[in-house]
Amino acid sequence: MAVKMQAVKAIGSKAGTRKNVLRFMWKYKTLYVISVPGIVYFFIFKYVPLLGSVIAFQDYNIFQGILDSKWVGLAHFKRMFAHYDFLNILNNTLLIGLYDLLIAFPAPIVLALLLNELRLVLYKRVLQTIVYMPHFLSWVIVSGIAIGILSPSTGAVNQFISGLGFEPIYFLGEESWIRTVLIGSGIWRDSGYGTIIFLAALAGVNPDLYEAAEVDGASRWRQTLSITIPALLPTIMIMFLLHIGKFLDFGFERVYVFLNPLNKNNGEILDTYIYQVGLLGQQFSYTTAIGLFKSVVGLALIVIGNTLSKKTTGESLY
């Protein structure tokens, strides 16, 4: 009898929970309707294509299709790690990704802190607009600007270097400079736009905290360290976790437009390699294996970073 009563209570609890969920969904039905296009987009263009990852384990033939292509197991992954070109390109990708994480990721945070200190509203808005604008330029335009500025004969940078009595530097013709150019151009293009999220987080800080600190005699620098940065920390951690998830996805277009035979050894990354070998060389299974490897690494980094963040700061993606 007691067991039956418990079963009845469990069924009633489940029915009540279902009704609460349906009631909640009906209450916010407008938001669910608005989210439908986004859900459909991600389903069609993100989740359905995941089924094609199976060709990483096949010797895929476009005329035979996925169902009839020969299965080769982990052969493409073995080839990937054994090929000398791949190891060099993986090293380039890791180094550029690390430089981007250490140098480019903090840039929007620093810029947001500086903009937040401006008290003249008109000047602040004009400056924000100026630093946002490069984000809306394509990488083709950005590369054209960079090539013009860094030109060894007519570029402004080399004009300045020559004026100091030094020899001009062919920045895009020396492999030792290509990583610096890639990171520097990315900071110039995207750091201003990246400040939007951090400025929005700063707008939510209670002004009373600054007033209390000022009464206690805290300087602006001390207020930044004790109030502003701790208030930004949750947002920084979330953005950091999202950033490391695409650690190996530096971007095809932002690298390809700067590559040439003189700097390719230090500049080619996995995305440009996939383009060369997969699309131009039509080695679809091999490059799918590389893409799957990138996805697994990104997932592992997110899981590890999320776990560490939850234990140390209490902030996490899930």
Automatic annotation (TrEMBL):
<feature type="transmembrane region" description="Helical">
    <location>
        <begin position="177"/>
        <end position="203"/>
    </location>
</feature>
<comment type="similarity">
    <text>Belongs to the binding-protein-dependent transport system permease family.</text>
</comment>
<feature type="transmembrane region" description="Helical">
    <location>
        <begin position="28"/>
        <end position="48"/>
    </location>
</feature>
<keyword id="KW-0813">Transport</keyword>
<feature type="transmembrane region" description="Helical">
    <location>
        <begin position="284"/>
        <end position="304"/>
    </location>
</feature>
<dbReference type="GO" id="GO:0005886">
    <property type="term" value="C:plasma membrane"/>
</dbReference>
<dbReference type="InterPro" id="IPR000515">
    <property type="entry name" value="MetI-like"/>
</dbReference>
<keyword id="KW-0812">Transmembrane</keyword>
<keyword id="KW-1133">Transmembrane helix</keyword>
<feature type="domain" description="ABC transmembrane type-1">
    <location>
        <begin position="90"/>
        <end position="305"/>
    </location>
</feature>
<feature type="transmembrane region" description="Helical">
    <location>
        <begin position="94"/>
        <end position="115"/>
    </location>
</feature>
<feature type="transmembrane region" description="Helical">
    <location>
        <begin position="136"/>
        <end position="157"/>
    </location>
</feature>
<dbReference type="GO" id="GO:0055085">
    <property type="term" value="P:transmembrane transport"/>
</dbReference>
<protein>
    <submittedName>
        <fullName>Protein lplB</fullName>
    </submittedName>
</protein>
<dbReference type="InterPro" id="IPR050809">
    <property type="entry name" value="UgpAE/MalFG_permease"/>
</dbReference>
<keyword id="KW-1003">Cell membrane</keyword>
<keyword id="KW-0472">Membrane</keyword>
<dbReference type="Pfam" id="PF00528">
    <property type="entry name" value="BPD_transp_1"/>
</dbReference>
<feature type="transmembrane region" description="Helical">
    <location>
        <begin position="224"/>
        <end position="244"/>
    </location>
</feature>
<dbReference type="InterPro" id="IPR035906">
    <property type="entry name" value="MetI-like_sf"/>
</dbReference>
